[in-house]
Amino acid sequence: MAERYSSFTPGGTAWFLQRVTAAFLIVVLAFHFFLLHFVNHASEITFAGTEARMQDIGYFLTMVLFLIAGAFHGVNGVYNALVNQGLSGTPKKVVLAVLVIAAGLLIVQGVWVALVMRGMI
Fold first, then answer.
1. Which domains does the chain have, with CATH numbers?
2. Where in or outside the cell is it found (predicted)?
3. Rounded to whole angstroms, how far apart are CA atoms 80 and 2?
């Protein structure tokens, strides 16, 4: 039988956060789909409506946390998948740096847009 290998250390911080963000993303994604695809249909979504929803501090914080959790979960998952495929040495460090920079830029841009939609910038 093949040996199971994972770059995640069971019980480690990255392992734990990957599972916590997955659970959070499932719940918030369900909320997102329900609100923006069933309560409000795609043709009814406008910038004004988005600005109105972002005025609710709970909605605003949920969307910002959704962005941060999604970015972390995606980057951590891609990185660990590559490590599991044998990525090591300098290429591993370069990939990690590129992924962290990309996630950072995504989060900064997303928070900036959320703040603009809330009227804070």
1. 13-118 (1.20.1300)
2. Membrane
3. 19
In total, the chain counts a number of residues equal to: 121
Q: Give the predicted TM-score (pTM) of the model.
A: 0.87
38-42: Cβ within 8 A, 24+ apart = none
Mean pLDDT, the chain cut into blocks of 10 residues (121 residues total): 64 90 97 87 86 96 97 96 94 97 98 97 89
Residue type, 98: V
Report the C-alpha gap between 12 and 28 in whole angstroms: 24
Which of 67, 71, 69, 93 shows the shortest CA–CA distance to 82? 93
Measured CA to CA, the distance from residue 64 to residue 113 in angstroms comes to 10
CA separation for the pair 19, 25 (Å, rounded):
10
Structure tokens that stand for 103 in this block:
């996630």
Separation between Cα atoms, residue 13 and residue 56, nearest integer Å: 32
